[in-house]
Amino acid sequence: NAGVTQTPKFRVLKTGQSMTLLCAQDMNHEYMYWYRQDPGMGLRLIHYSVGEGTTAKGEVPDGYNVSRLKKQNFLLGLESAAPSQTSVYFCASRGGLTYGYTFGSGTRLTVV
Amino acid sequence: EDKVVQSPLSLVVHEGDTVTLNCSYEVTNFRSLLWYKQEKKAPTFLFMLTSSGIEKKSGRLSSILDKKELFSILNITATQTGDSAVYLCAVNPGTASKLTFGTGTRLQVTL
């Protein structure tokens, strides 16, 4: 039972490069989320999805785009990476309102 | 703007001590409050609280919610070195289950 899988686990980008982070869940969850975690800032919501084909902005969406073409996958894109996007990115999913989130193991991204 | 404040920011205790971690919140709507433990990687789910005054318990960990005073506490009794982690509190305002997290309490348990 894989749960929530994030790829890649680590990545170093140069400023201006683009990349896509993939989140896959095998629990048939409707809700999926992308958070970033920075020292002293806690977890902040970037974008989220309440179902296949839907996406919405969270607290810190600027510089990121997302897509949820299939229910099990939620992609986070950086079109032109900036050093301020250096962070640990967590994907999470939730099956319903009575359940806690299940988190992926995170992606550590460094933009130089 | 929804807000979750945790205290203390960090804490060092000796093995066997009992600790209490605090979480206060201000949200426009409230559905539930959740506690997570984060070691080196992903946060792992501990408790979800929805009703005031009902204690949730799991082994040496317990938590309770006060919806009138807008806070929750997480208690850990007989602490062990394996309890060393960052403990995160989050509130679900009920809109698409978007959790708002506090910055966490870093607990270090020493021998």
Structure description:
Chain A contains no helices and 11 strands. In chain A, 0% of the residues lie in helices and 52% in strands. In chain A, a hairpin with a 5-residue loop joins strand 7 (64-67) and strand 8 (73-78). In chain A, strands 2, 4, 5, 6, 9, 10 and 11 form a 7-stranded mixed β-sheet that branches. In chain A, strands 1-3-8-7 form a 4-stranded antiparallel β-sheet, with no helix packed on it. Chain A has 112 residues and is mostly beta strands. The model of chain A has no long low-confidence stretch (mean pLDDT 93). In chain B, the strands form 2 sheets. In chain B, strands 2, 4, 5, 9, 10 and 11 form a 6-stranded mixed β-sheet that branches. In chain B, strand 9 and strand 10 form a beta hairpin. Chain B has no helices and 11 strands. Chain B is mainly β and 111 residues long. The mean pLDDT of chain B is 92.
